[in-house]
Design brief:
single chain; about 550 residues; alpha+beta; Jelly Rolls; Glycosyltransferase; 2 domains; nine-stranded antiparallel sheet; three-stranded antiparallel sheet; 18 helices; about 15% strand
């Protein structure tokens, strides 16, 4: 009886203490119970993927060509029927061309051909977004990311006839098929190769004006395909690699989506996912995963991406007028300001050396780039956008310190980074002149419109200025030029940069492109680069938002 009474008292005490215990748990989590609600809303806005079955258009012949992108091209050779109606043993190494870039699941069938199968056979499939991926040996692998990202698959078949779907989702235009373990006793046919292509983009796109040049039309078309391929159940950075949501890509994809597919539910989903998966202090991770269940990449914090989340939220509210979501996620935006303040000194300057040790500051894929000037300008830009959002939501009293902080940071930026002799912003002990520093000082409004235009003009004449490393920073360069009233010059940059990718045969726009070095790779192996990458799709945004510049 005594034991029973003690047990009952323990159970009652435990029940009474549970709310207190849960309160203590959530007290250590900045957002507490709101996370589950945010995850629920993210799931509610998960889009349906639209599927299409795509068949190959022909066989291709891989040819070395110094004028082609990365030295290789694929020319049409024979019809696909010539492959399907003949034994495969004599055709090993054939290249199949699907005619365009697709993202989805690849399947094929094998059939008997004038003999009886008496042993397993082994096939190797190599998938390529660009021709060079089928020409360059993957091994021995020299790259800095996992070898498993490269799209080659070995399939062992024990029974024929059969139909096989490769489990892994792939992103490609071309596939090379090799027989690596044949049987000497029988031949077989390969047939019915297909890709079940997926995207969450499905709305009709408004046509460009009749006056739009053919090159701009091509840039817009390829940009739309790039965006479409990256629009899956989140805004992926690249459907080949990394197949996940990054804040920097989200912001740029959402801009392009706002003026094309207008799938604003996808933007909403991504904003909620990132909020729900922030760390316990409330700071955002730069990238998150959907599967097997939503989770962040722990430790992957980026200061500039956290600040750009606020800009993405403000833009989402402006384009949709969805005040409920903006108010719901306002605490997340406000919390990212605290992350910035961790690295500010008493003069309003970011302590770059300390910040760079504690958190990743991305800005651009560019070796040797000193980022102190750029991150100061980007932070000012984000603070201004955050305050504009606060005013729209009648929350400016919650961030009443921002106007004074913006002025302090702006004054400090001019004093510390502006070089009166060159009339350019410099960064680091070597007084480095970079496009990144000028771009973000202009976008942050550290300069006047007239000053910004003069800076951009001088920058483009500066022989030693560090140029952008890829399409990501080129986007911001175009925006800076437009903000300075240099629309025609921005159009010329688009034609010379994205237009060069068109000339090189791009089906989709690339993660990294340096016209002076087509083999450039942040990963020490250019086949590892993503050749359909979200942050390169933004010509769609510029062409459609500024028709007076780009559609005439």
């Amino acid at each position: 009886m005594t034991i029973r009474c003690s047990l009952i008292r323990f159970i009652i005490l435990f029940i009474l203490m549970c709310p207190c215990f849960l309160h203590l748990v959530y007290a250590q989590d900045f957002y507490g119970e709101r996370r589950n609600e945010w995850l629920r809303k993210a799931e509610e806005n998960k889009p349906v993927l639209h599927e299409r079955l795509i068949n190959p258009v022909n066989l291709g012949r891989l040819e070395e060509d110094k004028q082609a992108f990365q030295g290789w091209k694929i020319n049409a050779s024979m019809s696909i029927d010539s492959l399907y109606h003949s034994g495969f043993t004599s055709q090993s190494g054939v290249i199949v061309d699907f005619g365009a870039h697709y993202t989805g699941h690849f399947s094929f069938s094998l059939e008997n051909f004038n003999s009886t199968p008496d042993a397993p056979l082994r096939l190797k499939f190599t998938f390529g977004e660009v021709p060079a991926e089928l020409a360059v040996p993957f091994d021995p692998y020299p790259g800095g990311l996992s070898r498993a990202w490269l799209q080659d698959e070995i399939v062992t078949v024990t029974e024929i006839p059969t139909t096989i779907t490769i489990p892994r989702r792939l992103a490609f235009r071309y596939v090379k098929v090799e027989l690596i373990s044949p049987s000497i006793a029988y031949d077989f046919k390969i047939a019915n190769m297909q890709i079940k292509a997926t995207t969450s983009a499905n709305s009709e796109i408004e046509p460009l004006s009749a006056a739009t040049s053919s090159v701009i039309r091509d840039i817009d078309r390829i940009g739309l395909i790039t965006l479409q391929e990256c629009m899956q159940t989140v805004y992926e950075d690249g459907p080949k690699r990394d197949q996940r949501l990054w804040i920097g890509d989200l912001y740029l994809e959402a801009l392009a989506n706002n003026f094309s597919f207008k799938n604003h539910g996808l933007t909403k989903r991504c904003l909620y996912l990132l909020a729900a998966l922030s760390d316990l202090e409330g700071y955002l991770h730069g990238t998150v995963f959907e599967k097997p269940k939503p989770h962040p990449q722990e430790g992957q914090k980026l200061l500039d991406y956290a600040l750009l989340y606020n800009v993405a939220l403000k833009d989402y509210y402006e384009i949709t007028e969805d005040k409920e979501t903006a108010v719901d996620l306002w605490p997340v935006a406000k919390k990212q300001l605290e992350l910035l303040k961790l690295f500010l000194d008493e003069t309003g300057m970011i302590d770059y050396d300390r910040a760079a040790k504690d958190i990743w500051i991305f800005i651009d894929w560019k070796d040797g780039l000193h980022k102190a000037g750029a991150i100061q300008g980007l932070a000012i830009y984000s603070l201004k956008e955050t305050y504009a959002l606060a005013k729209r939501l009648n929350k400016e009293n919650e961030v009443a310190e921002l106007p004074a902080l913006i002025r302090q940071m702006t004054d400090g930026a001019r004093k510390q980074f502006f070089d009166k002799e060159s009339n350019l912003f410099v960064s680091g002990e070597d007084q480095q002149v970079s496009y990144a520093s000028q771009i973000w000082m202009v976008l942050g409004g550290v300069t006047t419109k007239k000053e910004g235009a003069n800076i951009v003009k001088q920058l483009m004449q500066h022989e030693n200025a560090l140029t952008p490393g890829g399409p990501y920073l080129y986007h911001y360069f175009l925006q800076a030029m437009i903000n300075c009233g240099m629309g025609l010059e921005a159009k010329e940059i688009m034609l010379n940069y994205w237009g060069k990718m068109v000339e090189k045969g791009a089906d989709t726009f690339w993660e990294v492109y340096d016209p002076k070095d087509e083999y450039k790779s942040p990963y020490n192996f250019y086949p590892m680069n993503s050749y359909c990458h979200a942050w390169s799709c933004t010509p769609v945004y510029f062409i459609r938002k500024y028709p007076d510049i780009f559609q005439k």
